[in-house]
Write a structure and sequence with these properties.
The complex is a heterodimer. Chain A is mainly β. In chain A, 5% of the residues lie in helices and 46% in strands. Chain B has one domain (16-24, 35-114). Classes of the chains: A mainly beta, B mainly beta. Strand 1 of chain A pairs antiparallel with strand 7 (95-100) of chain B, so a sheet runs across the interface.
């Protein structure tokens, strides 16, 4: 899998980041301004403008290696949006993208810590550990941060699942945001994130989020698409690097994701 | 409904509201003219400039754009000047962009158009 590299800090981008969504709508307009519209979802495009400053030699080498591997705009690569939650349907754990082990019970529309009703209650009535997770098509070798809000009146811990890593986190009756981050020694092209519940335990969860960085940012709700773009490309066939000193490089680049290409 | 910010507000200053008529004018050689009303009623447009948004607020607007598929979808918009609800509005354009200059420092602009009902 060809993918956009992370910086040595674990981040995919630096501020400022610009992102633009472009849709296509065919409009038939009368002189009185009545309109007939037809959506063309297949023509949608997402574009990013990224600026990098003070890159080291290693960071620049990784970026140049990607640019050479993709031959500029010719070949697509996987891009993890630095400004988005990588999980799809982050507040709807009953969607098909979420894989719940059999017998794991989910109850929706509970009060959440942000004042809404987007929380889920997850119950494990069995005598085995059960998991609720979502797999994303992104390299498992990158640095990831999984975060979620969780609370429980009935158990004292929950497991945060990040690929092959399971981190136990102590929880209580108050909502707290739990975080698990790190990098795996794996070359797999996909990785799963979620929670695991001990036998007989019940927890309330809300706001599951995965980011390709070391720490969690503010929670971002997603719908049918998360921030994983497997069909991204460099917009241009040229990559210009400015070097102001030893291991001090900067560049600006544009990335586009167009599904119809 | 158009999403609100965490403060409950829809817009920030400077806020722009436009009322649009369309008049067809026929001028004659003697200087007189006849005017015809093209629109049966006024149409409103709001330009919403937002700054210092956090990532969650930006994501809410981004999801709203995706849900509406750009200018295709329709929604109700409450005019923040007088509280009037305009039930049939759309985004003006097929593009939505934002700039994130730092944590909780997002900036974007949206334009909402009232549709002819």
């Amino acid at each position: 899998m060809i993918y956009f590299p992370q910086l040595s800090s674990g981040a995919t981008g630096q501020f400022p980041i610009r992102r633009q969504r472009v849709a296509r709508t065919v409009v038939n307009q009368s002189c009185q301004n009545y309109e007939v519209k037809l959506a063309d979802p297949g023509a949608a495009m997402t574009a990013w403008h990224l600026s990098f400053e003070e890159m080291s030699d290693q960071e620049l080498a990784a970026l140049e290696a990607l640019f050479q591997a993709t031959e500029g705009s010719l070949t697509p690569f996987t891009f993890l949006d630095p400004a988005d939650n990588l999980l799809a349907w982050s507040q709807q754990q009953n969607q098909a993208v979420w894989q719940a082990d059999p017998l794991l019970a989910l109850t929706s529309a509970l009060a959440d810590p942000l004042g809404g009703t987007g929380a889920y209650q997850v119950t494990n009535p069995t005598a085995a550990t059960l998991m609720l997770q979502q797999s994303i098509n992104a390299p498992a070798s990158l640095e990831y941060c999984l975060s979620l809000f969780v609370c429980s009146n009935q158990c004292t811990q929950v497991w945060l699942v990040r690929g092959s890593e399971n981190d136990a986190r102590a929880i209580g009756p108050e909502w707290t945001r739990q975080i698990s981050s790190g990098q795996l020694q794996s070359t797999a092209d996909s990785i799963s994130f979620g929670i695991a519940l001990d036998p007989g335990s019940t927890v309330d969860i809300f706001g599951l989020q995965v980011e390709a960085q070391t720490a969690a940012s503010l929670y971002k709700e997603t719908a049918e698409t998360g921030g994983v773009y497997p069909n991204a490309r460099f917009r241009d066939d040229a990559l210009t690097i400015t070097t102001v000193g030893p291991s001090r490089h900067s560049c600006e680049l544009d990335i586009v994701n167009v599904e119809y290409l | 409904m158009f999403p609100t910010l965490k403060t409950g507000a829809v817009m920030q200053y400077p806020a722009k509201r436009t009322m649009q008529f369309n008049t067809d004018v026929i001028r004659f050689l003697d200087g007189t003219e006849q005017r015809f009303r093209e629109y049966p009623a006024v149409l409103h447009r709001w330009t919403i400039q937002l700054d210092l948004l956090d990532e969650a607020e930006l994501t809410t607007l981004d999801q709203f754009f995706l849900t509406n598929q750009g200018r295709f979808g329709t929604f109700a918009f409450t005019d923040p000047w007088d509280g009037t609800v305009y039930p049939n509005c759309s985004l003006q354009g097929d593009a939505f962009g934002f700039q994130l200059r730092g944590e909780m420092r997002g900036k974007t602009t949206l334009t909402v158009l009232e549709n002819r009902t």
